[in-house]
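Please annotate the following for my students:
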Amino acid sequence: MDVPSAPAVRVVPPGGGDSVAIPGFGSVFKLYSRDNNGEVAIMEHPFAVGTITAPHRHTREDEHSIVLEGQIGFRSDADEVVLGPGGYITKPRGQMHAMWNAGAAPGRIVEVITPGGFENYFRELGELLTSVGPAAGVKLHETPEFTELATRYGLTYGHPDWLDDVVARYGLTPPTH
């Protein structure tokens, strides 16, 4: 029986890792799935005050979040919770979900993505945001490039009936894509 070789030891010092700027919600790459046979990717996401991610549904991966700083809200289908530092949540594939900064100070989470591979979406999204730019009257989610990117990564975006309520309750800036 063939046993895959063990991945090499990877070290990322505190504050280390490549990053991508996404307005209000960045991505810092801590562990790439290419380094562990595609099993897992680990990222950090800082959340500016007033930020909510666009509600979306994954078809291929689950996301496991650990709050490091601040108060982060999570909604996955009908389940909603706000967690402080040390709180954990799993957002299973197939559920429409979003995350937001529920507090008055910046927040930060660790995101464990299983299986890996989806971490590349954030890099490509950052590149798309840079290349498309804020063209007058054009919203990113209305571009063919955004639709192709989401489709390639098995994502669907939506406007669930709970979104406007969450935005209003927490004083958030509505998502732009």
